C-alpha cells in the first residue's frame, strides 16, 4: 500500500520550481529558445494533427480538433508545469487510441505521428524539471499503456508503442542525468564561493592576529616604562607624601598586572607551532635596510625621506611599525608581480599625518616572478587593517604607465575615539 501511495504521489505532486527552462541563461536568445521551440511545435502539430486524424483515421472533425489542441496545446503549459501538461496529454492519448482503433490498418496505432511527437517533446520538459521518482512513474505508466495495447489489440500493433516506450525512457534518463550533472556543478560552484569567502575571512583574521602580536611589543614597552617610572618615583623624587607614594605603588601594580594580562592574550593569539619573536619591532629607521634586502631580489628601490620627517623626530611606535610593514608588503608585491622593476619609496609629513607612497614601474620584458621564502603578510588585506587600526586611509591601484602605487596616510596624533570609530566602521 505504501508503494502504491508513493507511486500516485509521484504522478500528482510536481516540483515547486516553475521557472521556464533556460530562464537563468545570460544571453537573451538562449532564454527565448524554449518559447520559439514551443511556438514552432504548435504551428506545425495542431493543423497537421487535425488533418491526419480526419483524413487518415476518419475521426470526426470536432474530436480531431480537440485532440490536436489538447496534445499540442499542452506544450506551452509544459514550460512551467510539465507534470500538469502530462496529466492532460495522457488521457487524450487514450481517447485518441480508442477513436482511431480499427480506423486505418495502414497507419500507426495507437500512436499517430503527431501524437508521438507531442508526447516525446513533452518528455523533454519533464526530464529537465521533475524529480527522478516522477520520471520513473511516468515511464512506467507509458510502458504499461503500450504493453496493454500490444496485449489486447495484437492485430493492430505495428511497433509504434515499442518506439515510444524506448525513446521516452531514453529521453527521461538522459535528461535526468544531465540535470543531475548540472545541479552538481551548481552546488560545486556555490561551495567554491563559500570556500573563497571563508578563505578571505580566515586571511583577515590571521592578519589581524599577526598585527595584534606585533603591537603587543609596542604596548608592552610603554607599560613597562610606566611600571618602572611608578616604582622609582619615590626614590627619584624626594619629599613625596605617603598618599602619593601609595598612589605610585598602585600605578606600578596595575601596570604590571596589565602587562601580565597582555602576555596571556599574546599566548592565546600565537599559533601552537610558532615561537615568540625576540627581535624588536622595526620602524622608519629600518627602511634603508629593507631596501637593501629587496635589492638582492632584483628590485631597485629609492628611498626619499622628507626633511619634515627628520625634523619631526621619533613617531609613535605603532605608526612607525605600520609604515614599515606597508612598505615591506608593497615591495614584496613588486618582487612577486613585477620582478626587476624600479620602485620609489617616499615618506613625508602632511597635515599631522605620516604619508607613505610606494610606486613601481612595470616589469621589464617577461621576467619571471620571484617567489619569496616567507610571507610578510597578506598583501592589501594587511595594509588595510594596519591603516584602519590607526584611523588612516589607503589608496592603491595601477598607474598610467602600467606600474602600481600604494599610498597610505597614517595620522600621527589621533583624536580620542578614532580607534572606536574605525572599529565601528569595520563592524558596519
**Radius of gyration of CA atoms, rounded to a whole number:** 39 Å
Count of DSSP-assigned helices = 13
| Domains, number | 2
User: Which structural class fits the helix and strand makeup?
Assistant: alpha+beta
What percent of residues adopt helix (DSSP H or I)?
55-70%
Widest sheet, order of strands: 1-2-3-5-4
Distance, first to last CA: 57 Å
Shape: elongated
Topology as a string of helices (H) and strands (E): HHHHHHHHHEHHEEHEEH
Annotation, overall tally of beta strands? 5
User: What is the mean pLDDT?
Assistant: 81
**Beta-strand proportion:** 5-15%
Biggest β-sheet: count, sense, barrel?
Answer: 5 strands, mixed
Low-pLDDT windows of residues: 370-377, 414-428
Organism: Kitasatospora cheerisanensis KCTC 2395
Protein name: histidine kinase
GO molecular function, one term: protein dimerization activity
Keywords: ATP-binding, Kinase, Membrane, Nucleotide-binding, Phosphoprotein, Transferase, Transmembrane, Transmembrane helix, Two-component regulatory system
Structural overview:
- The protein is an alpha+beta fold.
- It folds into two domains: 2-158, no CATH class; 284-427, Histidine kinase-like ATPase, C-terminal domain (Heat Shock Protein 90), CATH 3.30.565.
- It contains 13 helices and five strands.
- The chain has helices at residues 2-12, 28-55, 61-78, 82-100, 113-127, 132-152, 160-236, 242-269, 287-295, 307-312, 317-337, 380-389, 418-427; strands at residues 300-305, 342-350, 353-360, 393-398, 404-411.
- A five-stranded mixed β-sheet has the order 1-2-3-5-4.
- Helix 1 (2-12) crosses helix 6 (132-152), helix 5 (113-127) runs parallel beside helix 7 and helix 7 crosses helix 12 (380-389).
- The longest helix is centred in the middle third of the chain and has 77 residues, at 160-236.
- The chain is elongated, with a radius of gyration of 39 Å.
- The two termini are 57 Å apart.
- Residues 370-377 and 414-428 have low confidence and may be disordered.
